Amino acid sequence: MRFSISPRRAALIALAAALLGLIFSAYSTYDYAQQLDRQVHAVHCSFIPGAPVSDDADNPCKAALFSTYSAIFRGAYWGGIPISLFGLGAFAFFAGFAAYLARGDTHKNVPPHAWWTFVALSLGPLLTSVVMFTISVSHLHALCKLCVGVYVSSITIAAMAVIGARSHRHGVSVRGSVGLFGGASFACLGAFASVPALLYVALLPDYRPLLDKCGKLAVATEPHHSLLTIKTEHPVRPVTLFEDPLCPTCRAFHERLVQEGVFEKLDVTMAMFPLDSDCNWMLDRPLHPGACVMAKAVICGGSDKARPILEWAYEEQDGLRELGKKGPQALTSKIAERWGAEIAACVASEKATTQLNQQLHFAANNHVPVSTPQMFLGDRRICDEDTDLGLKYTLAVLAPELLP
Q1: At which of 203, 237, 260 does a domain end?
Q2: Residue 376, beta-bridge partner list
Q3: Co-location of 123 and 271 in the same domain
Q4: Domain count, the chain
């Protein structure tokens, strides 16, 4: 069977795909490495290489970058080793291999096993892309444009490898050299993929001295006993959390704790800290309209329902934030629909307002920054940057008993 795409053209298309994959991986790695200064930076999120960074706080590329799936060995290194770094080396290898095949086909001296080795090697990026695509859809519920660029590049390389191998004109096998060529190629791919990661690890600074530099609780207890106790399965370490039910960063932080297997080991005391000027006098405008209403709903849940209501707020956050813009009544009606009239009545009560106010005073007395989430391990404040990329590393150093 003959194909309309010649081996040389297939190799050139694979080369172009590898170069695009290299570019997308490079931008993703650059965005990740930018965060190593422990500051938050904008990220690239475009199908167009070289497009400006996106300042949108909720864009899918930033969600993917800060997810638990973007890096490995997070417990051993602050931030871990980004997956995109392996892609960077791998696509560089595939670009070189595709260029070799294209040039060799021009001179009619490419052995058949070279193409089939290319096919076998291309399955690695293809399978990795399938796994990461599945994770993006099933867990992150969003597709990062840089990631999609990598997926398409991987698929194209694999497709062109198969087409080029099947349409290659030389039918003479080169016995005795296939195993050597294939083994050398696999070793070369492994080196290309691994060396950037090894260099990355070698250049990482020591973050341990920075982990306990963000202060402590000035006032350990709330005199009115207004703080919430969140039930977990195996609490082994006390923690105080300040959270906003309508804060996207809080949602991501909570999901991170759950996915890492940490949350169920925390003895959680929680204070609501809605970034909504309707109740929070520390703000001059509402950052998350409706957060005051949702915070009171969590408070009204008490020890039994506070966590389910909070997690429901996180799951339905986008819709609840839209309702919050319409005013308290729209949110209260939604709360009544999901949690019953008793919780809805409590939300409108003076008691809930007072308890929320006491929790806000507790935050103010402890000079908690007006941002969420905030985490205190015992009385030690965990730095903001150590609650996202550096979370697992920070816990491995300060509270290893919390990790699986």
Answers
A1: 203
A2: 240, 381
A3: no
A4: 2
Amino acid 344 reads A
pLDDT at 180: 66
pLDDT grade for 379, boundaries at 50, 70 and 90 = very high
Amino acid at 191: A
Distance of CA 129 to the CA centre of its chain: 16
Q: How far apart are CA 118 and CA 301, in angstroms?
A: 59
> Do 395 and 299 share a domain, yes or no?
yes
In a domain, 131, yes or no: yes
Q: Is residue 114 pLDDT above 50, yes or no?
A: yes
Work out the number of other CB atoms within 10 angstroms of the CB of residue 152. 16
One domain for residues 351 and 271: yes
Cα–Cα distance, 381 to 256 (Å, whole number): 18
pLDDT tens readout for residues 218-266? 998 999 999 999 999 999 999 999 999 999 889 989 998 998 899 999 9
Distance between CA atoms of 162 and 159, rounded to whole angstroms?
Answer: 5
> Is the separation of the CB atoms in 392 and 72 below 8 Å?
no
**CA geometry: angle 62, 21, 255, nearest 5 deg:** 25
Q: Are residues 22 and 95 in the same domain?
A: yes
Contact 384, 254 (CB under 8 A): no
For the ranges 26-40, 115-129, 298-312, which has the lowest average pLDDT? 26-40
For 89, the domain range is: 7-203
How far is residue 341's CA from residue 58's CA, in Å, rounded to a whole number? 33
**Within a domain: residue 382?**
yes
One domain, residues 254 and 178: no
Helix (H) or strand (E) holding 243: strand 237-243
pTM: 0.82
Which is nearest to 244 in space by CA: 374, 139, 123? Answer: 374
Residue 295: inside a domain = yes
CB 393 within 8 A of CB 38: no
